[in-house]
């Protein structure tokens, strides 16, 4: 039995999310099906994070145990050939120790959220950005973001479906950067609550369009109440960037 | 009658190219159909350049004459609403003089070519880059590119379908830059022959993978013979970046 670490890029558009679902395609099922075809073994692929429907990944980390002996090169090439035409690509692969776990060994997760902030809708990046057609004030959004960094009870920014034991998380980074016509929001933490990044981005957008003052984000945080949420940003602008390990 | 200048972003994937065709969808037809629905006028949209099937545009410039009186805002919003779901977006619009012409007034055109140079196929940028899975030497490609800059007979780099009166063109810029996993080739000239950018990129890729020496590109140019062409790069990596006017 060999444990393999996979680095996976995917376009979340056609998927119900990372996790295997009965009612539609998932990234996990796409990879498991390709591995089954290649090795004949039904194997479970574990990821560092379970992304929602429509959320993309630049480099999700996952692992899988395989009995079959195969080279790194052949495994990566085989999975990439068999997973087509689904938009999933294994960009790197390596053998890891048997006790290494993509989810439980992970000590940090990074996300990027892309807002296209112009009047005209996207043609080239359709489904890859959140299109906000009204002017956003990125500097006010950056000021609001600073209220969320640190250790807090993030109940306001937590989905009702969240399975985390505690709403208390430490947000290490939340930055807002104007990049041409886009606004990029970067978030880093050991772990996130379900919908936390999209909920934070939604509130920052309320500030960006002037409906909220930067301090209103602090008030929403302190309310510890999902009803205080301004807006949940849509999934198509969100990218899982990287999982960090010791 | 008002002449309007349109700046157009499009994903070339689903189109037979810019120009109206009998046998399939085109960007021109998509825009003309939206304008017809909006104004009731059958109008011809003229572009700075006629891109091939699969080629994208970050900012194509075009013009159209309309009798109907309409505000800039309403015209842009109306076209963008009516052109959906086709991946075409009018990003800017302005009134111009009656003798201004998107094609004939244009004094410069810029293209970008994106190569994804890694083993794994693209998941997020499928159809938006040329995937070259073998290592390319960007610095050798840059050296080869310098042989093509300047005024030359580009017969080697010209499609048999090219309608230009002369194969002699002045290439103002051809640069090669490594950008993470991508190689970006930027080309600028007053005008280009049909397939010129893709033909030049194809030869640079021959150099990049070591099949050609940089000097072989000069020899191919001097041959003035289409048979001397190494390879025509595929359309999906090519972007019309900008048209310049006095």
UniProtKB/TrEMBL annotation, chains A, B:
It comes from the Bacteria. The keyword Metal-binding does not apply. Residues 8-104, 144-246 form the Pseudouridine synthase I TruA alpha/beta domain. The active site is at residue 52. Its EC number is 5.4.99.12. GO terms for biological process: tRNA pseudouridine synthesis. It catalyses: uridine(38/39/40) in tRNA = pseudouridine(38/39/40) in tRNA. Belongs to the tRNA pseudouridine synthase TruA family. This is tRNA pseudouridine synthase A. Transmembrane segments: none annotated. CDD domains: PseudoU_synth_EcTruA. It comes from Sphingomonas xanthus. Formation of pseudouridine at positions 38, 39 and 40 in the anticodon stem and loop of transfer RNAs. Homodimer. Substrate binds at residue 111.
């Amino acid at each position: 039995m060999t444990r393999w670490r996979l680095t996976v890029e995917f376009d979340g558009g056609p998927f119900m999310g990372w996790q295997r679902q009965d009612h539609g395609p998932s990234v996990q099922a796409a990879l498991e099906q390709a591995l089954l075809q290649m090795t004949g073994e039904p194997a479970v692929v574990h990821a560092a994070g379970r992304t929602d429907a429509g959320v993309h990944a630049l480099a999700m980390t996952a692992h899988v145990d395989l009995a079959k002996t195969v080279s790194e090169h052949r495994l990566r090439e085989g999975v990439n050939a068999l997973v087509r035409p689904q938009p999933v690509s294994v960009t790197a692969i390596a053998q890891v120790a048997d006790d290494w776990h993509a989810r439980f060994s992970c000590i940090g997760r990074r996300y990027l959220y892309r807002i296209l902030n112009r009047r005209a809708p996207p043609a080239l990046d359709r489904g890859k950005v959140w299109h906000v057609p009204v002017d956003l004030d990125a500097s006010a959004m950056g000021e609001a973001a600073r209220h969320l960094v640190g250790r807090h009870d993030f109940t306001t920014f937590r989905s009702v479906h969240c399975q985390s034991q505690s709403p208390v998380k430490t947000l290490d980074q939340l930055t807002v950067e104007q990049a041409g016509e886009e606004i990029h929001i970067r978030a880093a933490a050991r772990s996130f609550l379900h919908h936390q990044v999209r909920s934070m981005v939604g509130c920052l957008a309320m500030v960006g369009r002037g409906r909220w003052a930067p301090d209103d984000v602090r008030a929403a945080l302190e309310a510890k109440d999902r009803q205080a949420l301004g807006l949940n940003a849509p999934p198509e602008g969100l990218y899982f960037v990287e999982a960090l390990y010791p």
